[in-house]
């Protein structure tokens, strides 16, 4: 997405600010200073060369006005924001004039902020990233200096950010200067229209009480729909409830922890002073009934005594027949009257909050399941892994397996036991990890699957869990790639004076049982059969840097395998006929 001309100027001003502070990168605080400096740069009396044309000024001025109006709604202005940010600046380089030749790069945090700004602009239907989008994105990320500046100004980050996003929504659908209004179908007469992405009620101090309630109900879904921290949004919601119901001295939202079966305090006002009766909260959740309660003569709980609470409203958070927690407010004024209209409002807000919490829980559950599935499938090559993930998403990844022919590869470090006796535990672990990274990559490049790590060895399978007509050739090429990876790794380790080693590889093919075994909660891929045992024999007979093939494998791979006869001796099964791989044919 394109940047507006005003945003480009803010970026240039941020680069100049970073240079003044002696910074090596353009960080989020520099960008916020740059954003709050655009108004000053547009002034006719602004010193230095103006990097914009007079034709661009009206459009840039419109963005500045939207930015300044948002700050004013949050109770601040751009000069005070600049001063607060600069007071926390790091570095003391001398001031430098704004110049087109500024060539500082954005830090990773700044790049991420621009990505968030693009998403916000796109969501609001804007054709370019404007000042309000960039500023809101800068306030979304974790940045200590920006947080400290807002604390210095006595402002809440969420208040400023929401004001910016609200202004962005208001401007997103405004036609550009001198643009014609959209042409409607002449057969349709539009009697009235409004911006559906914004609240139709202004949330201001002078708004009548009934409209303040309507504004809160309208704005709550918009608040929950913003990309921000849910706890911060809930804190803002509780503050607005106190404005709508002035008698509410305390408000809180408790959630039910599914793991500990405990009630967690997710948000509360005033901060640090929760006024909650767990007895009432649990009673409301169990009965699924919202209520207005008034303190009696002898039934006050210890928590209500502590804060001198006299009345309150408790409403359960209900979503799809599940109780997620409780929404409550309390009044310390013995003369305050909480009425049924207040109760209905809190019940409605509780439903909105429950829907938002359920959405967050669903997203977290999906993310955890996705991460768990990814971890479970780490033994598979990317191509096979993607196929299995697709099966899992479609509900087709189940316990069970099948019998069919697969190709099994086994590798083992020669003389590892004796060598490891001379190394420390950490050195052994580092050595194996160093080699395994290259060996696993070679296997995955040829669509192999890691069945298991056998101490200093690897058991890999080709043609499972997904069938593969090229499994024999791929196993052979993977073995060659593994030996090449060992050679390169040894060259590096030798130059560093580290211990090196060699591996022997055996490859065989045959019918096995292969698939997922275990339980629905914990399943693992495995391969079982005599072919696995015979592969281990060929691996044991291979010397360092050697690859031994079974006759069965050579029957399939003879077109590409350049071999010579070999024999593998075993203790109880006699001699096995084998082929030593000399190289791959160019055919």
Q: Quick recap of the structure?
A:
This protein is an alpha+beta fold and 587 residues long. The chain is built from 20 helices and 15 strands. The chain folds into three domains: 2-172, Double Clp-N motif (Orthogonal Bundle); 214-368, GAF domain (Beta-Lactamase); 394-584, Nucleotide cyclase, GGDEF domain (Alpha-Beta Plaits, 2-Layer Sandwich), CATH 3.30.70.
Q: What distinguishing features does this structure have?
A:
587 residues, alpha+beta, Double Clp-N motif, Beta-Lactamase, Alpha-Beta Plaits, 3 domains, 8-stranded mixed sheet, 5-stranded antiparallel sheet, 20 helices, 15 strands, 47% helix
Task: Set down the secondary structure blueprint.
Elements: E1 2-3, H1 5-20, H2 28-35, H3 38-42, H4 57-73, H5 78-87, H6 108-123, E2 128-129, H7 131-140, H8 144-153, H9 157-172, H10 209-224, H11 230-244, E3 250-256, E4 263-269, H12 278-287, E5 291-294, H13 302-307, E6 311-319, E7 322-331, H14 340-376, H15 382-393, E8 400-413, H16 416-420, H17 425-445, E9 449-454, E10 457-462, H18 471-495, E11 503-518, E12 523-528, H19 530-541, E13 547-549, H20 551-557, E14 561-569, E15 575-584
Parallel strand pairs: 1-2, 11-13
Antiparallel strand pairs: 3-4, 3-7, 5-6, 6-7, 8-10, 8-11, 9-10, 11-12, 13-15, 14-15
Helix pairs in contact: 1-2, 2-5, 2-7, 4-9, 5-8, 6-7, 7-9, 10-11, 10-14, 17-18
């Amino acid at each position: 997405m394109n940047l507006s001309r005003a945003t480009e100027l803010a970026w240039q001003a941020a680069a100049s600010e970073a240079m003044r502070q002696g910074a090596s990168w353009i960080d989020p605080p520099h960008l916020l200073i740059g954003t709050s400096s655009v108004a000053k740069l547009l002034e006719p009396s602004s010193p230095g060369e103006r990097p914009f044309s007079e034709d661009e000024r009206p459009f840039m001025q419109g963005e500045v006005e939207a930015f300044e109006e948002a700050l004013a709604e949050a109770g601040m202005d751009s000069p005070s924001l600049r001063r607060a940010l600069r007071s926390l600046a790091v570095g003391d380089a001398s001031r430098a004039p704004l110049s087109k030749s500024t060539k500082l790069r954005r830090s990773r945090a700044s790049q991420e902020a621009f990505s968030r700004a693009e998403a916000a602009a796109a969501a609001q239907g804007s054709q370019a990233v404007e000042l309000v989008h960039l500023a809101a994105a800068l306030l979304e990320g974790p940045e200590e200096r920006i947080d400290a500046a807002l604390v210095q100004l006595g402002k809440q980050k969420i208040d400023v950010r929401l004001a910016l996003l609200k202004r962005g929504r208001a401007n997103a659908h405004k036609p550009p200067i001198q643009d014609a209004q959209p042409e409607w179908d002449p057969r349709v007469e539009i009697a009235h229209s409004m911006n559906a992405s914004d609240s139709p009620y202004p949330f201001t101090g002078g708004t009548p009480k009934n409209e303040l309630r309507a504004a809160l109900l309208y704005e709550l879904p918009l608040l929950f729909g913003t990309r921000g921290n849910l706890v911060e949004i809930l804190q803002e919601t509780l503050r607005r409830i106190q404005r709508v119901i002035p008698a509410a001295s305390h408000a809180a939202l408790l959630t039910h922890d599914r793991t500990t079966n405990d009630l967690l305090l997710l948000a509360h006002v005033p901060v640090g002073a929760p006024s909650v009766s767990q007895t009432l909260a649990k009673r409301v959740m169990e009965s699924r009934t919202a209520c207005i309660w008034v303190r009696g003569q002898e039934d006050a709980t210890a928590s209500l005594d502590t804060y001198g609470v006299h009345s309150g409203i408790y409403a359960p958070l209900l979503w799809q027949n599940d109780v997620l927690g409780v929404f409550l407010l309390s009044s310390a004024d013995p003369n305050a009257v909480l009425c049924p209209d207040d109760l209905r409002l809190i019940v409605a807000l509780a439903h909105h909050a429950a829907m938002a919490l359920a959405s967050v829980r669903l997203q977290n559950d999906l993310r955890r399941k996705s991460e768990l599935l990814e971890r479970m499938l780490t033994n598979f090559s990317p191509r096979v892994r993607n196929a299995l993930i697709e099966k899992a998403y479609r509900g087709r990844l189940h316990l069970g397996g099948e019998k069919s022919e697969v190709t099994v590869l086994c590798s083992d470090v020669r003389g590892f036991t004796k060598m490891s006796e001379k190394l420390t535990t950490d050195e052994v672990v580092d050595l194996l990890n160093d080699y395994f990274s290259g060996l696993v990559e070679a296997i995955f490049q040829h669509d192999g699957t890691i069945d298991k790590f056998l101490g200093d060895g690897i058991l890999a399978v080709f043609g499972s869990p997904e069938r593969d007509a090229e499994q024999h050739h791929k196993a052979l090429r993977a073995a060659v790639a593994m030996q090449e990876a060992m050679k390169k790794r040894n060259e590096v380790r030798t130059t560093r004076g580290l211990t090196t080693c060699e591996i022997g590889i055996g490859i065989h093919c045959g019918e096995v049982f292969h698939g997922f075994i275990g339980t629905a909660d914990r399943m693992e891929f495995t391969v079982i059969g005599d072919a696995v045992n015979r592969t281990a024999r060929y691996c044991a007979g291979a010397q360092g840097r050697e690859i031994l093939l079974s006759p069965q494998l050579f029957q399939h791979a003879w077109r590409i395998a350049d071999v010579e006869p070999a024999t593998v001796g075993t203790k109880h099964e006699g001699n096995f006929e084998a082929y030593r791989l000399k190289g791959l044919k160019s055919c």
